[in-house]
Write a structure and sequence with these properties.
This protein is mostly helical and about 375 residues long. It has one domain. It is built from 21 helices and no strands. Pfam families: OAD_beta.
Length: about 375
């Protein structure tokens, strides 16, 4: 009996605490949503499974020599995982729609409004002294970057400014990206008329291969010289795109957008999941992060739509305001949502390629915003 008792006391069930059981249930819920509802399955499945592993008592997989902790030390404090994902995204991205209509850069820039508005809001809440909501400047900046709807950027900034908030911020960022089809349409309809949603845009001009090759080089040098803190993100994004457009290194481009990004996505997801332990996630501050992240995302969506309406006041070639919502950088889901809402107003109105312009600009904009925050806060 003594040996049986000792065996029982060595099990995870004996040491399981209510908070750990709750977090395991939450992580299983993430896996369910990813599989059944299709909510960002490439990341929510690894994140959810990593969270399950992190909350198994006694196993210590997210501590010390645990495999999840080793993944974390290699990939997040160094920024390696988010940067490699940015390179893969660059290798999958076509800058053509943005180069064909450079005005869409303004839409991508406007959509970053949600980031800086939320930064101010988080600091204002902290000043009120609400228990559990005492955000520092570094924490507020990490929460605000959720408004860019760019998971790797959110992780990159948070790992440098507030690594203890990595779990809730990563989950919020990827959850809102997954919920783009539910969150954005009501905002888009509320801020536009049916006539505006039915605007048919002119066909995009052809973009030469030379333009596509030169642009990532110019982008990297321009951002790197003006804002060095954004150079890692923008540089890897531009490098991946150069591999795609050069035409001379297809093997490298293919590896970047397929095998490499898939491997890193698995490691990144498990690592983020390892930060969903009960002691770090089940706090009042987590609820504040989720609420402020939603505000940031909605603010960015609204700002992009309103910027498009403002540009139409001064332009003869009208822009359909719906494409402004794609400036939040959730590529390519936000562009698809713009196209879907546009088709509801006009079945002959295909906005997908037009929306890809601000969508790509939003990726650049969120990386630049991250550089600004790291420069002023870090």
């Amino acid at each position: 009996m003594e040996k049986l008792l000792k065996l029982w006391q060595s099990t995870g069930l004996y040491h399981l605490e209510p908070g750990q059981a709750l977090m395991i249930a939450v992580c299983l819920g993430l896996i369910y949503l990813a599989i059944k509802k299709g909510f960002e399955p490439l990341l929510l499945i690894p994140i959810g499974f990593g969270g399950v592993l992190a909350n198994i008592p006694v196993a210590g997989m997210a501590e010390g020599a645990g495999v999840l902790h080793l993944f974390y030390e290699v990939g997040l404090p160094t920024g390696v995982f988010p940067l490699l994902i940015f390179m893969g995204v660059g290798a999958m991205t076509d800058f053509g729609p943005m180069l064909a209509n450079p005005k869409t850069l303004f839409l991508g820039a406007a959509a970053q409004f949600g980031i800086f508005a939320t930064l101010i809001g988080a600091l204002a809440i902290a000043a009120l002294g609400i228990p559990g909501m005492e955000f520092t400047l570094r924490e507020a900046a990490s929460i605000a970057i959720i408004g860019g709807a760019d998971g790797p950027t959110s992780i990159f900034v948070t790992a440098k400014l507030a690594p203890h908030l990595l779990g809730p911020i990563a989950v919020a960022a990827y959850s809102y990206m997954a919920l783009v089809p539910l969150i954005q349409p009501p905002i888009m309809r509320a801020l536009t008329t049916k006539e505006e949603r039915a605007i048919v845009m002119q066909q995009l001009r052809h973009v030469s291969q030379v333009e596509k090759i030169v642009f990532p080089l110019v982008l990297c040098l321009l951002v790197g010289m003006l804002l060095p803190d954004a150079a890692p993100l923008v540089g890897m994004f531009a490098f991946g795109n150069l591999l795609r457009e050069a035409g001379a290194v297809e093997r490298l481009a293919d590896t970047s957008r397929n095998a490499l990004i898939n491997i890193v996505t698995i490691a990144l997801g498990l690592t983020v999941g390892s930060k969903l332990s009960a002691e770090s996630f089940l706090q009042l501050k987590t609820l504040g992060i989720l609420m402020l992240g939603m505000v940031a995302f909605c603010g960015g969506t609204a700002a992009g739509v309103l910027m498009a309406k403002l540009m139409n006041v001064f332009s003869d070639n009208k822009i359909n305001p719906l494409i402004g919502s794609a400036g939040v950088s959730a590529v390519p889901m936000a562009a698809r949502v713009s196209n879907k809402v546009g088709l509801e107003a006009n079945p002959q109105n295909f906005l997908l390629m037009h929306a890809m312009g601000p969508n790509v600009a939003g990726v650049i904009g969120s990386a630049v915003a991250a550089g600004v925050l790291l420069n002023f806060v870090g």
